[in-house]
Specification:
The structure holds two protein chains of two kinds.
Chain A (H helix, E strand, L loop, with lengths): L5 E3 L6 E3 H32 L8 H34 L8 H23 L17 H30 L9 H31 L8 H12 L1 H22 L6 H14 L16 H8 L1 H27 L8 H4 L6 H24 L13 H28 L8 H27 L22 H34 L33 H26 L6
Helix pairs in contact in A: 1-2, 1-3, 1-15, 2-3, 2-4, 2-5, 3-4, 4-5, 5-6, 5-7, 5-8, 7-10, 7-12, 7-13, 8-10, 9-10, 10-16, 12-13, 12-14, 12-16, 13-14, 13-15, 14-15
Chain B lengths: L17 H27 L8 E3 L2 H15 E5 L2 E4 L6 E7 L2 E3 L1 E5 L4 E7 L4 E6 L3 E5 L3 E7 L5 E7 L11 E7 L2
The chains are: A mainly alpha, B alpha+beta.
Chain lengths: 563, 178
């Protein structure tokens, strides 16, 4: 058995298992490396889709697009999530990490799998896009690498569950697990479902690629593959919502408005999010409307309900905490006097707002059975998921990194001024990417397309000129986002490897005002809760949601009648 | 704090503030509205995707396309046959690497049974500029009943990646007045 040593965090008082600390560090470092690689591919894709630049030749474009999806959507996010799982279990519960050797084995498998699949893509025989729909076939080791990676991630989830069991056995905490750990548990449970679906579809597909199976039904593949592909995005949602709660707690001492409601909202994710495979099958042949309506709406939008609950309770918890800390004037003093210069806060808040307004609303609208007809496989789709996975998840992970560096890696954040601006530059770029792609998609522009001027096609066709302008703006936004990504990577690498060690207590909390005693009620605040600022934000969100939803029904009603 | 165990051990008994309950109620009702909107559109809306689907094979489907060309071809466009089927007819359209085949000529305001299938990989039927998008699978024959309600020249883009010539895969549908 590996020896367990602990240190005590001078700032938070948490007991930190050094094995967990090292694993968090290396999983996060691997994540950041894949972010750098995948981000570079992403930039080259966006610059190619900018018609005036048209950077890459066709074969390289499709290769880069495949690699971009693989490296950022899968590798960056899952490595970082494993780091968060270890943080939310071992660190937050003051516990030793279960089976650190297995955790290292998981890391090794994930890294090997990730590298093998990257090599397969770069060799040029696996330009099949991230989704790899059959009958298009990739090289065998493309699938094999993904399978190794998934097995590794599954083992890491096992280590997380084991740690929860140990913490309970050894009574390292009192009562129930913290809300953040509960959110991470939600993510891990969904991850098991997701990785199992991945295994169910990727193992036969791999056998097909080596000739042991004659055909893979393309519709069946899509149904099961998206049980992995979409549900894994719900892992991201659970994790980044948990991170929102964690950052609000660390900076403001924010408590959930109601433990019951916030945990209930996470529970809705577990119960309903897996149905979302249907989002990718709304314009497919052969599936009944009953199946589509029930699944695409997560059984009457119950998972959307979960997100809308978090959308009130996260900013609400911050507002209540800020008011208690003395920023109690007017509707928005709590927000105005928030630490906008602290990248952990600005990143987290931008993530929260953009996930809701850009990713959330567009996702629900696009996932409406009939409306999907005017959006499927247009650029609207990547526009939507850059709003969720990049503006939401990636920005939240970046924000969290600024807290992990001093607390877990015990280094000062280098280049603080660069770090201060980083979430804004990245956030601005991503907001542009998301909006301009959605705009182009609304005008019909295809996703995954090298030449929207159709120079080599047998017929003439042009998208509206506005679409070309939007693609140029998308390219400019991608440059901004890449710059923001580069700033992040410089700060992380410089801090982790060359940062000044942190030995003493650091000041984590945001500056407070002059608290007025009794201004805000006690824990949970039922009956005395006062969050007018959050209610205003939520009301604006709701109105935008309703209007945008019905505008798209209007668009739909204008296309050719079909039945 | 959210990073510590709940302060009250019996947190599930703690009362919930009215504000939060009202928001949950609003969000839940909105979810119901969106849910029933899809069902209502099935009953009253004019744009619902057909579920009529048959198993087929590339050879069988190609034979039907050839037969329709032999019967109804009116001219050629850039070497591709243009088919003008009678009103209400079964019309066959192939997606293949890298062409939508054949070109169709339909009459405005008339309904046609449009059969879609692929000869090789998955393709994306994306009719521009009206922006109707339907996924096309090999081995499945998907029958949509469409009623073009505007005349003009329409282009079918392929919006599912289908290999290195994907970006040159186009097709045409002409809609003419009677």
């Amino acid at each position: 058995m590996t020896k367990t040593e602990f240190r005590t965090c001078p700032t938070t008082g948490f007991k930190i298992d050094l094995n967990a600390q090292a694993l968090i560090k290396w999983n996060a470092v691997a994540a950041v490396i894949f972010l750098a690689i995948g981000g570079l591919f992403g930039l080259s894709v966006a610059l190619t889709r900018w018609p005036a630049v048209h950077l890459l030749p066709a074969d390289w474009f499709y290769l880069a697009l495949t690699a971009h999806g693989l490296d950022v959507l899968l590798l960056w996010i899952l490595f970082f999530e494993i780091a968060v799982l270890y943080f939310a279990s071992a660190i937050l519960l003051n516990c030793r990490l279960a089976a650190p050797r297995w955790a290292w084995a998981a890391f090794g498998l994930m890294l090997t799998g990730g590298l093998v699949t990257n090599v397969a893509v770069l060799q040029g025989q696996s330009t099949v896009m991230f989704t790899s729909y059959p009958p298009m076939m990739a090289a065998q080791h493309f699938y094999l690498g993904l399978i190794l990676f998934a097995v590794g991630a599954l083992i890491a989830c096992g280590v997380f569950f084991g740690t929860l069991v140990i913490a309970r056995e050894e009574r390292t905490y009192q009562g129930s697990v913290p809300l953040v750990t509960f959110g991470a548990l939600t993510a891990a449970i969904i991850a098991v479902f997701t990785l199992a679906s991945g295994a169910i579809i990727l193992i036969p597909t791999w056998m097909w690629s080596i000739g042991l199976i004659s055909t893979i039904d393309p519709l069946m593949y899509k149904l099961v593959w998206w049980a992995m592909g979409h549900s894994s995005q719900q892992i991201n949602v659970s994790v980044h919502v948990a991170i929102w709660y964690a950052i609000a707690a660390m900076l403001f001492g924010a408590k959930p408005l109601s433990e019951k409601i916030s945990r209930g909202a996470f529970l809705l994710y577990i119960l309903f999010l897996q149905l979302a495979s249907a989002h990718h099958l709304l314009v497919e042949p052969g599936l009944s409307p009953e199946w589509k309506v029930f699944n695409t709406s997560y059984a009457m939008y119950l998972a959307v309900l979960g997100s809308m609950i978090h959308g009130l309770s996260v900013p609400g918890a911050m507002e209540a905490a800020q008011r208690k800390r003395g920023f109690d004037r007017g509707i928005f003093e709590w927000l105005r006097k928030a630490p906008w210069g602290n990248p952990a806060f600005s990143g987290m808040f931008l993530s929260l707002v953009m996930f809701g307004f850009l990713g959330g609303i567009s996702g629900v609208v696009m996932g409406t059975e009939q409306i999907n007809i005017i959006m499927h496989n247009t650029l609207y789709v990547p526009g939507h998921f850059h709003g969720t996975v990049v503006a939401g998840t990636t920005l939240a992970f970046m924000a969290m990194t600024y807290l992990l560096i001093p607390l877990i890696l015990q280094r000062e954040v280098r280049f603080p001024r660069l770090a201060r601006w980083q979430p804004y530059v990245f956030g601005l770029g991503v907001a542009g990417i998301s909006l301009f792609m959605m705009g182009a998609g609304t005008l019909g522009v295809s996703r995954r397309h090298w030449d929207i001027t159709f120079a080599t096609a047998p017929f003439d066709f042009n998208y509206p000129p506005t679409a070309l302008l939007l693609m140029a703006l998308n390219g400019l936004s991608a440059i901004a986002a890449a710059l923001g990504g580069l700033m992040y990577i410089i700060v992380v690498v410089a801090s982790v490897f060359f940062g000044k060690p942190v030995r003493d207590k650091i000041i984590l909390a945001a500056p407070a005002g002059h608290p007025v005693s009794g201004a805000v009620g006690a824990y949970g605040s039922a009956g005395t809760l006062r969050i007018p600022g959050t209610l205003t934000l939520v009301a604006v969100f709701f109105v935008a949601f309703v209007l945008y939803y019905f505008v798209n029904w209007k668009y739909l009603s204008e296309i050719w009648p079909m039945r | 704090m959210a990073i510590h165990p709940p302060g009250e051990k019996l947190w599930w008994n703690h009362p919930v503030d009215r504000v939060e309950l009202i928001w949950i109620a609003v969000a839940f009702v909105w979810g119901l509205v969106m849910f029933f909107m899809m069902i209502w559109w099935h009953a009253t809306g004019e744009q619902n995707l057909s579920t009529e689907t048959y198993r087929t094979t590339p050879n069988a489907f190609y034979a039907k396309v050839e037969a329709s060309i032999a019967e109804w071809q009116v001219r050629e466009l850039n070497g591709v046959p243009v088919v003008k089927p009678p009103v209400g007819a079964d019309v066959y359209l192939i997606g293949r690497m890298w062409l939508w085949y054949p070109v169709l000529e339909l009459e405005r305001g008339q309904s046609y049974r449009l059969h879609l299938s692929s000869l090789d990989l998955q393709h994306g039927f994306s009719l521009q500029p009206i922006n109707i998008n339907v996924q096309v699978h090999p081995g499945y024959e998907h029958v949509l009943t469409v009623t073009p309600n505007s005349s003009g020249e329409y282009t079918i883009v392929c919006n599912e990646y289908c290999g290195l010539g994907h970006h040159s895969m186009l097709g045409k549908i002409f809609v003419v007045d009677r």
